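Example record

The entry below shows one chain as it appears in the dataset: sequence first, then structure tokens.
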Amino acid sequence: MTGLASEGPAGRGHARGNGHGGCLLALAELLSDLRTRPRFIDEPPSCDDAGRASTLAQQAGLVLVEGLGVSITRSGEDAAKALDEGDLDGFSMALRAHAPYAAVLDALGARGRLPRSRIPAGAFGAGMRVTPREAVALAWMAVGLGQAYTGPGSFRDGSARPDAPTVARAVTDAFDALAQDGLAKVSDMIPRLCAELRMSPWALARAIPDAVASGALSHLDMSPAAGGPVDSRDRVLAMGERGWELDPVPLDRFHLGQRPIFTIARRATARGG
């Protein structure tokens, strides 16, 4: 067991913890610090976010505690490098060495969704002991790493990473199903695409530009437009100006470069021969 506290839902704007993501932020900061210098402790980990992060890192084999010294392992170095590169998938893979976290991901993958209020012990394989409180906290960690996302009353699997042609076909199908007068809102398309592809909104936002770059969506016009505040339900770990933070994941837009895309239209057929 990790001793993780139950995490809560994210709101708007950036966050430094305060419930949802506090342990995840502390874990990122711990690994970043240990890459530059060893750390010394003069008492056992407490029950705060830093203590929980230290315990999880030890159990995942990312750090080594010897006496009063804490140092990063080779696996921890790889995990920290993945973080530096914005590779949340790689960091999550490193955390799978922590058996309860792996069990939560596997349960999400097998079932598709888990209840947010209380995840029953029966969701996990035989012999795996994960308390309902710990399971919810680890599911929120999966959300913060882009491996899952939240819907009404549930955590949903978002760990699939289909290739660009598959994403392009799904985008086209969603557009055809949702477009009115040749125009579809991205806010209507994202929930459908996440459910169909089993991708988190964070992963989908990274995959659509690749599908566009492949040329498979050239029949659709994705013109940038100005927008208001981000409509977001979940946050993911990211490096900000003041260190690690939790960034809101938009549900009403994606970006091509720095350009926000809110609507998609069918591209007019070129005239002439």
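Notes for this example: Residues 164-266 form one domain. DSSP finds nine helices and 13 strands in the chain.
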